[in-house]
Amino acid sequence: MATGALTPPADTITEAVLEFPDNRLLIDLCGEYDRNLTTIEDKLSVQILRRGNRLAVIGEEAPRQDALEVLRSLYSRLEAGRSLDPGDIDRELRMGPNPVPGPVDQIELFKGEIARVEVKTRKKLVEPRTEAQKAYVKSLFDHEMAFGIGPAGTGKTYLAVAVGVNMLINGHVDKIILSRPAVEAGEKLGYLPGDMKDKVDPYMQPLYDALNDFLPGKQAAKMMEEKVIEIAPLAFMRGRTLSNAFVVLDEAQNATTMQMKMFLTRLGQGSRMVITGDRTQIDLPRGVNSGLWEAERLLKHIPKISFNYFTSKDVVRHPLVAAIIEAYEADAEA
To answer: pLDDT tens string for the chain (334 positions)?
Structure first.
């Protein structure tokens, strides 16, 4: 049969065995019902068998070696007392094993070429899961103005908020300002009851979600009450000079050209600005140009402004999200 040609010769499939001294850590490495091992098997096309405190990896040479390195790296992570969740496994599979660093000031991590990039917040340690994310996070520390452009689910806003929280708790900025254009995503929401906060909060909810991932609830609420953290629609930025602040404009593709110019010119001394958006999800009325597209066209030649791009390969949500994005991209190109 023709399919027989796809089956690798038996002599290319061999077995390698790893031994792990701490059985408790091995249990964590394998995951509940060995789900971590199943993930590695599926991604690398190998078979992993557990034999006591040993793991046998069966497969062709290249994927077998990759699986061995991933298992060693994840076990080292557990030995260092760090957690292991599906995102950590996904990162190792995407980026390859890296040494687990010791305690380092987070800002120092970005002063040279290093194996691993991390962002420390009050609630968790955030680690980029793709090379594009890694380059993006480094640019947020290195540039006063940075753009993150790409499809949904690639961590553009999430990582920007994480860096903002890091810079705030380390005293590099005095406040965080998170903003979005209040544009309806293809549907008319009609009259919303309540005061101004009640009316705009539904548009801002993704920013609250990201913030709550990095700060304890009570601390985040107190910081918002004291205006150390502000979450506001883009229209509220007019007339302000934003100094000593970490400012994020999310969903920037829904800002008009004039709104984008207004926002970018709010940059004050000691501040950082991050502009994120997805050019494929513009909800502006027909005939209205996206300010993100215009800013990209006009500002790309300015060396101190960083432009960072993501693709469907950088999606870190459910794997189906990447498949959906790729299907739409393929249809648009057809």
So the answer is: 333 344 455 556 788 888 988 888 899 999 888 888 998 888 888 899 988 888 999 988 888 888 888 898 888 888 888 878 887 888 788 776 554 444 333 433 433 333 457 788 877 888 888 889 999 999 999 999 999 999 988 999 999 999 999 999 999 999 999 998 876 544 444 555 555 566 667 777 888 888 888 998 899 889 999 999 998 888 888 888 889 999 999 999 999 999 999 999 999 999 999 999 998 888 888 888 999 999 999 999 998 999 999 988 888 776 677 778 778 877 777 6
Q: Give the dihedral of Cα atoms 247, 251, 254, 256; nearest 10 deg.
A: 20
N-terminal to C-terminal alpha carbon distance within the chain? 34
For β-strands 14-19 and 54-59, DSSP reports them as antiparallel
3-class secondary structure for 109-135?
A: HHCCCCCCCCEECCCCEECCCCHHHHH
**C-alpha torsion 145→148→149→154, nearest 10:** -170
Look up the pTM and report it: 0.74
Distance CA 114, CA 116 (A): 6
Q: Is 84 exposed, middle or buried (0-12, 13-18, 19+ CB in 10 A)?
A: middle
Are 241 and 113 in contact by the 8 Å Cβ rule? The answer is no
Longest CA span, the chain: 72
Burial letters 161-185, b for 16+ CB under 10 A, else e: bbbbbbbbbeebbebbbbbbbbbee
Instruction: Provide the CA 19 distance to its chain's centre, in angstroms.
Output: 33
Copy the structure tokens of residue 179.
């903003």
Q: Which two tokens stand for residue 119?
A: 């962002």
